[in-house]
Amino acid sequence: MAHYRQVGEVPPKRHTQFRNAEGQLYYEELMGEEGFSSDSSLLYHRGVPSAIVGSEVWDLPDQTRTPNHPLKPRHLKLHTLFPHAGADAVTERRLVLGNNDVRIGYVVTGTEPSPYYRNAIGDECVYVEAGSGRVETVFGVLSYRQGDYVVIPRSTTHRWVPGEPSRLYPIEANSHIAPPKRYLSRYGQLLEHAPYCERDLHGPTETLLVEGEDVEVLVKHRTSAGIVGTRMTYATHPFDVVGWDGCLYPYTFNIDDYMPITGKIHQPPPVHQVFDGWNFVICNFLPRKVDYHPLAVPVPYYHSNVDSDEVMFYVGGDYEARKGSGINIGSISLHPGGHAHGPQPAAIEASLGAEYFDESAVMVDTFAPLDLGEAGLAAEDPAYAWTWAGRGPQGPAEGGDNPAVFSNS
């Protein structure tokens, strides 16, 4: 995120001596992306940031992936995965969908702090479906609330401290996550046509100084064997930073601050984009006025996004008009490449003349096929694939699942 910020104390010049009142030298750490050829920040530590006194295996939750084969659309009911709040925000995330570029999880926390954690594989963008609290990081503290995207750069040490049980939807990249380039000037400023601006991005405002020794940090990383975890023990507390500056840091962005782009006729999904990752995009569909052409059809045409799998997570809105569809708040629809999808036929006529849609969803489109994680298999509604036709291989579709009529699915 190329938006400069300074927090705490830093010396007048980079890479020069910086000492405390007693004359002790602070330890400078350069945290940078793309081989120090992209965004970076300089952090000043009281202790040596590389001083570890232990390293052990951390057994990750089940990372098994099952191909979507034979190919079919899926409906996943995430709210069935955690009947009760109380899971840990880091160690008890469950894998819903994933490929070699991105993994989508789900967890419903309690109020206990998570362990200290660092994802060394890629950036994380965690959508807060419900709840509030704080994320303590090596850069300082972020407050989070319902509707926030919490964007945490790769290898940022942090922990989740929920103030109340929180429903979290982690999107874990194997890359960095940033605003789309078409929203940015060549120098990195968000442009006038972008649906949000720098005022909407909230980073740490002060340092978080914590004393401690022999502090455990869970590190998620990759080896030739795939995704693994290590429990590293640091001689001094990672949150010993007295100041930092630069353009790389965690931040939050709330979907209420996103300004939907609308048009005279139905707009394609890219107008709803909020972030980019390698081989995937993140969009949000929010309450908005809809198309104003006198013959406009507000719900989308049937579409085949031939290069993508489409994942829609339904997080808010009035679903009274869609009783019996099966898709509701807490649902995911997975519409894979190779399958044309769209609204229930009856929804097309029903939408004519509508002036406003009151609904919210977070969409992830991937440019490589998605597999199902163990949680995706556990949460599946098996009747969904047959609901456009009203019958499947076993006869009439059962379970009350008619086609998804959410306006953007």
Properties at a glance:
409 residues; mainly beta; 8-stranded antiparallel sheet; 6-stranded antiparallel sheet; 29 strands; 3% helix
Q: How does this model look, in words?
A:
This protein has 409 residues and is mainly β. Helix content is 3%, strand content 38%. The strands form seven sheets. Strands 5-27-7-8-15-10-13-19 form an eight-stranded antiparallel sheet. Strand 11 and strand 12 form a beta hairpin. The protein is globular, with a radius of gyration of 22 Å. The relative contact order is 0.19. The C terminus is likely disordered.
Strand order of the largest sheet: 5-27-7-8-15-10-13-19
Q: Level of helix content?
A: under 10%
- Structural class, by secondary structure, is mainly beta
Portion of residues in beta strands equals: 35-45%
Main sheet record: 8 strands, antiparallel
Radius of gyration: 22 Å
How are the SSEs placed, and which strands pair?
Layout: E1 5-8, E2 27-32, E3 40-45, E4 52-58, E5 65-66, E6 74-77, E7 94-98, E8 102-108, E9 116-119, E10 124-130, E11 133-137, E12 140-144, E13 148-152, E14 158-162, E15 167-173, E16 213-223, E17 226-236, E18 241-246, E19 251-254, E20 273-277, E21 280-285, E22 288-289, E23 309-317, E24 331-335, H1 345-351, E25 356-357, E26 359-366, E27 371-373, H2 374-378, E28 391-392, E29 395-396
Brief description of this entry?
The chain has 409 residues and is mainly β.
